[in-house]
Amino acid sequence: MRKRILSFVYAGRGIKTVFSTETNMKIHLVITAVVIACGFVFKINITEWCLCLLCMALVIGGEMMNTAIENIVNLASPEFHPLAGKAKDIAAGAVLICAIISVIVGCLIFLPKIWEMLAG
Ligand SMILES: Nc1ncnc2c1ncn2[C@@H]1O[C@H](COP(=O)(O)OP(=O)(O)OP(=O)(O)O)[C@@H](O)[C@H]1O
């Protein structure tokens, strides 16, 4: 039981580390806050909330995996190596794909509502 609780403590420490050290993570946090505020302002429905929450998890989780990979690569290959560069580029590319898809989902949800508000 103690081991189980400790695993939550370690996970919490990982979340705290990534949010306090990674600039990209702070940017994601600001965007997440803006999306949540827009969700309330535009009164999005439960399905739209679920899609927004999934996108947030995708981008923040992806960024955390990217940071973990960067740390492992730096540890395993502090010197220049094509495979180290490839691993970092692929991890960064994965975050970019998640972010682009999330922006598209955000546009599909919010743009019609913004348009409706401006038109009406
Ligand atoms: N050890 C290495 N060997 C080869 N290429 C590397 C190595 N380390 C970094 N690179 C190249 O430099 C790029 C940037 O690496 P870096 O570690 O600065 O990542 P970053 O995305 O800028 O990190 P951060 O998110 O901390 O700013 C990598 O995507 C990779 O192309």
From TrEMBL:
- Provenance organism: Paludibacter propionicigenes (strain DSM 17365 / JCM 13257 / WB4)
Q: State the superkingdom.
A: Bacteria
Q: Which InterPro entries match?
A: DAGK, DAGK_sf, UDPK
**Residues that coordinate or bind a divalent metal cation:** 22, 70
Q: Which Gene Ontology BP annotations are present?
A: phospholipid biosynthetic process
Q: Which residues form the signal peptide?
A: none
Which Gene Ontology MF annotations are present?
ATP binding; di-trans, poly-cis-undecaprenol kinase activity; metal ion binding
Report the co-factor binding details.
Mn(2+), Zn(2+), Cd(2+) and Co(2+) support activity to lesser extents.
Q: Which Pfam families match?
A: DAGK_prokar
Q: Which residues bind substrate?
A: 63
Localization of this protein = Cell membrane
- Residues that span the membrane, as ranges: 25-42, 89-111
What keywords are assigned to this protein? Answer: ATP-binding, Cell membrane, Kinase, Lipid biosynthesis, Lipid metabolism, Magnesium, Membrane, Metal-binding, Nucleotide-binding, Phospholipid biosynthesis, Phospholipid metabolism, Transferase, Transmembrane, Transmembrane helix
Give binding positions for ATP.
Answer: 10, 22, 70, 79-81, 88-89
The protein, known as: Undecaprenol kinase
Which residues catalyse the reaction?
63
Q: To which protein family does this belong?
A: Belongs to the bacterial diacylglycerol kinase family.
Q: Which GO terms describe its cellular component?
A: plasma membrane
Fetch the CDD domains from UniProt.
UDPK_IM_like (cd14265)
Record's bilayer topology term = Multi-pass membrane protein
EC assignment: 2.7.1.66
